[in-house]
Amino acid sequence: MAAIGSDSNMMALPGLADQFGRYVRSTSTRTAALVGLLTYLSYAYAHGSWANPALIGVSVFTGLLLPTYAKLSNKAELWAQNQFGFVTAGRIGRFVPQYAFNLAVFWVLLWGGALNVVGVASVGGFAGAALVTSLASQGSQYLGLFLFQRGIGDANRNVLAGVSINMLLAAFGTAGVPGAREAFLIVGFALGAVLFGVGVLSDIRSLVAPKGGIGLFFGTFNPFHNTHLDIVRRAMEERGLDKVIIHPTLIPRIHVDAFRKGQLRVARIENGFQIYEKTDKADVNVDYFPAGRQFLPPETRKVLIDLAVAEAGLGNRVEVAFYPEVYNAKGFRGVIGEVKKLHPGVRLHALHGTDHGGMTVRQICDECGWIYPWRILRRDKVSATAIRRGAKGMTAGVVTDVLAQLTANRPEVTAGGRRFRNENGVLTEGV
Predict the structure, then answer these.
(1) Whether residue 396 sits in one domain with residue 340
(2) 160 and 272: one domain?
(3) Which residue has the higher pLDDT, 93 or 159?
(4) In total, how many domains does the chain have?
(5) Segment 245-295, tens digit of pLDDT
């Protein structure tokens, strides 16, 4: 028995070593380690506490658990957004655990003698220091990602630069260094005001939106289902929209980058869906599939939207747009720019749900000018994930029909009086 157990353990060791190696190679792991090191160096130098056990412990804890903490913060924000449908609620949802974490950190550092007591008192005590640090941290990360989305820098480097600047200001500000203290307070409250101010303005626009104009409805639509149709109908009625422009996601940027880096690949085609899988190069700390790992090709998703809209009798008030070159270059920001160019001066409304994808679309629209959000709190049982797993009755009849033909791998698909070639799940009209 001992020999069997020993062999089993020996066989498990290479697997554990491989997992550990991938964890160490993760960009998130290295970033966390660097933040932990910066924490130690900044506070040790500013407060003269190089050998302080509390500072060393906090720095090591930060370096090891920051990726896990980031995931929990993301989940807290998503939960709050999905419950209330407001940007401000989501940001408070992220802020509360971050403030609690910083509150505990500053208390431990102060209790452990790692901080200058007079300096900390000058910024409102450990509670004030935690507040300003939390505001600045969220604001700097938001700014870093905002710049990345516009082609400036890299997402990880931008966030790291923002966190690093904030770390240095917090260290020297809490030490009472003249100038640094004022900069710490000003930057913290300024970035916090921008972060929450953008969200509050978005929420106000969603509540007092005037009627009339064009609705923008963006998403993966993987596949287009009954709730999507309900959103279109309700938004038209409640906002008095002249029409709604629907544009599906092509390949999400996170996947484009991951495919380019060899972190993802298409494993197989199943029931018309491309099944994505991670490779050995994938970052173990990254969630590549917040919306699942099964994707209909973009061309097919557009066809399904066209067919469902026509069957619902909404063809005269719904435009299904498809700008692959614009989207691939600039994402939905580029699509919004194209719509503005084609409809100058027209009031725009952003239709969205409160899940991860819906709130991401809302943020994009918020950053593209004065667009009025229209959100729907998802409380029904309709689920794209369930549909991909074979659930019935959640899509328009024509969509159900097409999905069945894709599952049967028919080389020719007919639906809604139209005929399409089926090449590995990609539908092209005309045979």
Answers:
(1) yes
(2) no
(3) 93
(4) 2
(5) 999 999 877 788 888 889 999 999 888 899 999 998 888 777 788 778 899
Contacts 24+ apart (CB under 8 A), 236-241: 236/317, 238/374, 239/209, 239/211, 239/212, 239/213, 239/215, 239/349, 239/372, 239/374, 240/211, 240/212, 241/212, 241/213, 241/214, 241/215, 241/317, 241/349
pTM of the model: 0.86
User: What's the domain range around 319?
Assistant: 211-429
Residues 189 and 243 in one domain: no
Domain shared by 218 and 180, yes or no: no
**Cβ atoms of 347 and 365 closer than 8 Å:** no
Where a domain ends, among 203, 237, 265?
203
Residue 325, C-beta contacts closer than 8 angstroms, at least 6 positions apart: none
Separation of CA 11 from chain center = 38
- Looking at residue 219, which CATH number applies to its domain? 3.40.50.620
Inter-residue contact 155 to 261 (CB < 8 Å): no
Pairwise CA distance, residues 199 & 216, whole Å: 19
What span, in angstroms and rounded, lies between the C-alpha atoms of 120 and 111? 12
The last residue of one of the domains, among 203, 237, 258, is: 203
Q: In this model, does residue 221 exceed pLDDT 60?
A: yes
Is residue 196 domain-shared with residue 51, that is, in the same domain?
A: yes
